[in-house]
Here is the input.
Amino acid sequence: MACASDQNRHRPQLLLGMYRIKPIYQGDLILEKPECVYKMKNLHSVEMEKEATQNSDLLADIEQRQQAILSRLNELKETLNQLAGRHGMSVQSSSTCLAPPIVRCTPTSVAESTVHIETVLGKGIVDIVMHADPNQPPLSLFVLYEIMKSKYQVLATSYVHSSVISVDKKLTTAFQNASASRRSQNQLALSFIWKKVDKDPELVVSPGQHIPIQGEANIARYLNRVMDPDFDNRDIVTATQVDEWLDIAQLQLIHGNSKERAAAVRSLNSRLGRNDWLVGSSLSLADIVTWSAVHQAQQADSAPANVKKWLKACAKDPNFKLAESLLP
Here is the structure.
């Protein structure tokens, strides 16, 4: 057995000091920098002020954007309040606004609904401008015009745009009563401009801002809600059914191909085989617009029995007299 002294004799000398090297540079060394080189701060001496400044700029930018959003919301709120005041409604805050209850009752026809004039339109006159092609007049708008005359004081004027060569005199005189009264004595000012349009008639709600509503069915929707602002809230099921027929009239009858038009007429005939009117038990907006679409699609002469019976029933309504006079 080896003794401890023998083991220590063969062990490396681990306790010797590490080697030393001369320093690469002196701490107080001063270097002369040429003037042609741009200067920058010592990275080791930069403080945290720069980061704090950047954070401050970021917060200021966020606050500025937030203020812009709040200003925009205030503008929208002011516009909404003006519209609500015009239509006699009150705007509730988001904390107190609750979903309105659905009230179901017997559907009311467009001609039967009665609403106070100032409640819907406000005290000032409302300007509505419509553009339409004289080769395809939107007949439903003449029916709605007759209904609106029975509810409001309406000033109607008709113009011919330079984009058309000539317009049938029946069209220009049908929508014209400007000599009957002064502008200030009316609640509605309707202007009908006969011109070449791309595809559909167009209604401009605010002539100054040029906010367009395109399509005969959509224009009819708007005018109907001017006359009856509670139309959607009264019975949402009936309102949905009316919208469905308006889409059929616009998309399949007016703008559809021969197959789509034939399918729409079949659906129309099937519905009228069980009912006198398209929606409900009386004439509605669906009947007015679809009646116009059937004539524009030239489907009236070849229509099946139920559709022809319905067309005759529509023609008996006094509000259709003006539109009937415009048929070829």
Notes: Residues 117-325 form a domain with the Glutathione S-transferase Yfyf (Class Pi); Chain A, domain 2 fold (CATH 1.20.1050.130).
